[in-house]
Amino acid sequence: MEQHLQLKDFKQEQKRLNDTVAYMDRILHSSKSDIENAQANIKTAMSNVEYLDSSDSFLNILMNTRFFELARDQKEGLEAIRQKPYFARIHFQREGEPEEFLYIGKTSLFHNETHEPIIVDWRSPVANVYYDGRLGDITYDVRGDEQAGHLFAKRQYKIEQAELLDYRDVDLTTNDELLQEALEGKADVRLTEIVSTIQKEQNEIIRAHLRQPILVQGAAGSGKTTIALHRISYFLYTMGEHFNAEQLMILAPNNLFIEYIGDVLPELGVDKICQTTYADYVQNALHLKLKLTNPNEQLEKIVENITTNFDDLHISKMKGSPFYELMMQRYLQRYEEQLATLFDDVFIEKYRIMKGEHLKKLFLVEFQYMPIEKRLERIKKIIQTEVKRKTTAVLTKLNSRYEEAIGRALNGMRDAEKRRLTVTKMIDERDVRIPKIKQEAKTTASRYMKKFTKAKVKTLYRDIVTNRELLYEIAPEWDQNETESFLQAHKKESWALEDLASLYYLQAKVKGIEDPWKMRVVFIDEVQDYSYFQLAALKAGLETDMFTMVGDLAQGIHSYRSLTDWQPVLDLFPRATYATLQKSYRTTIEIMQVANEILLQMEENLPLVEPVVRHGKPPEFIAQQALQVQTINQIVEQIKANNHHSIALICKTTKEAKSIVKQLEKADFPAQILDENSAIDQQKLLVVPSHLAKGLEFDAVIITSFDVPYYDNPIDRKLLYVALTRAMHELYLIGPSKEAFLM
Ligand SMILES: Nc1ncnc2c1ncn2[C@@H]1O[C@H](COP(=O)(O)OP(=O)(O)OP(=O)(O)O)[C@@H](O)[C@H]1O
């Protein structure tokens, strides 16, 4: 009986899918002919341009182009989801309405005639019910209004090539099974399939107050990147009326990472969003092209135990601190006050048009909220208007004075010759003076403003870091030694990542950020690698706090210059929601155990990461003093035999990575070093310096430690932790002893 019912149910589901696909095919067919029609119309209109009224055919072309685009978008949208129109269904009843089955997919589809939803978008308010976890009476949010309903059941489908393979009703236990199945997948195909298994705590972050900042401390592999990308997609879906994609920006740690997420965003319905790094963004927004010292170089030096100048590290850290922001503020205040002394009275000829004191007050007080140069532009406009208005009054007054004087001379002077001379003199004087005033008035404002010379932000900053007297003023807290070593460090002009925050801050406060770069919403991945001031400058320049920030302090390998705890970020974003994610979806229990051992040794006191229950091959330690290509070969073969294909060999330093690639190549083993600019060749073994591995993941990871071991210090622990947590299924450690891996 049970079986019979199941079969019937399966058939019904099959029919539902077939009907959906058939409907999609019908629409596809008609959008194809819409496309052809529009193309034909455009062609005709183009050929008619010559002899028809050209504005008519121009309109025609525009209209048909729009039709064409609509039809093409519809076609592409349908084609993208045809193979798998939906992934889940909810059996749901909105309060006061009949029960219904809603099928959830990556985008929505409505019936053209009945307007009934055939597929409901995963980002729609009601789809939240699917992710929220509970069955029974529930509430959900529709644009701020709480709606009630009853959720009877949730069902998940396995559909491939538009064929129903399987489905399963979801309760708390099957939820785990489904997730596990999803996690069994391979590194190269997974990122886009997550929408069906997004977990409750992840969903909460994706949908958390969109107009408020959010900071997420999430364990390695807890889905931070995934969540950030889905939140962007959800944001545009929900707030599309108020924001367009160009106003959104995602800041990634490096270009490699941008490439990595590049394929995912369009699949989530998000393109056109600005994807960049902090360094590129700042330079673009400031129209600067700086030769930055490689931010990884300093890290490499520390890691390779090459003695780095303590002062350099100290300065890097200081440049990210609230104190450096304070120095910039003091500098700006000084700069502003100097400019303010230049405001004197505005005259035309001998007439005072405006008081300097008044302009000064506008500059320092009333317009204080604006960037300095914008204030000056405003003041110039005000002077222009005032000059215009007052000149008219002055001229009227002058004219009538001359009239009066001339009248008096004409009537009052007896001597005709004297009278003639006086009157002529007055007329001549008037005829010179009045046009001169008119002429002068035209340029008064611009002449007045000339003394406010515009400064280049780069020049201002160089002045700050090289001018001893200035430093005494803006950093009085420093003793002689500190000031001198700061000056010494800046003798030669060079630019580091840390300097960008100040440049951006100065730009924001002196000139303002231009509209195309004035992003309204910001998403930051790997936020632990930012300094306080980097974030503060960005917030000040963009004048928004709509930031989504995700990161993991345990992976803070740049902590010598970046954040070491979240408090400064929370102070900077007082409205921020703070969330944590402890579960790792990437790594097997066996691998996570090893990584957790390292996490325990860190000073941050972060809670252990809980792997989602998924077992795998225990990590293997292989004792070897030096690289043996034979061993690598064997391991790679074994990994491939396990049907795992994305493999990385992670080395602590770039130096070791280079030397390993050399040795492998010499033995004809195809290998490639990963650097920020080269495309990945899938056929070769990817050799990755540990600091570049952040954010990436592989089916299997081999970690070697031949040159230098991982030492028992904060940065090495973090580098090792990052390396260990890149592995999804298999992990191999090769080195002289377990101690080399802090075990
Ligand atoms: N709900 C989920 N369902 C299926 N897979 C998931 C889910 N959440 C995360 N994953 C997978 O877990 C892996 C880790 O996700 P992601 O890279 O977003 O984590 P992360 O927190 O950014 O990691 P890291 O900090 O180590 O870079 C990815 O393969 C992702 O596809």
TrEMBL record:
<feature type="domain" description="UvrD-like helicase ATP-binding">
    <location>
        <begin position="197"/>
        <end position="588"/>
    </location>
</feature>
<protein>
    <submittedName>
        <fullName>AAA family ATPase</fullName>
    </submittedName>
</protein>
<dbReference type="Pfam" id="PF13538">
    <property type="entry name" value="UvrD_C_2"/>
</dbReference>
<dbReference type="InterPro" id="IPR027785">
    <property type="entry name" value="UvrD-like_helicase_C"/>
</dbReference>
<keyword id="KW-0378">Hydrolase</keyword>
<feature type="binding site">
    <location>
        <begin position="218"/>
        <end position="225"/>
    </location>
    <ligand>
        <name>ATP</name>
    </ligand>
</feature>
<dbReference type="InterPro" id="IPR000212">
    <property type="entry name" value="DNA_helicase_UvrD/REP"/>
</dbReference>
<keyword id="KW-0347">Helicase</keyword>
<keyword id="KW-0547">Nucleotide-binding</keyword>
<dbReference type="InterPro" id="IPR027417">
    <property type="entry name" value="P-loop_NTPase"/>
</dbReference>
<dbReference type="InterPro" id="IPR014016">
    <property type="entry name" value="UvrD-like_ATP-bd"/>
</dbReference>
<dbReference type="InterPro" id="IPR048228">
    <property type="entry name" value="HelD_bacillota"/>
</dbReference>
<dbReference type="Pfam" id="PF00580">
    <property type="entry name" value="UvrD-helicase"/>
</dbReference>
<keyword id="KW-0067">ATP-binding</keyword>
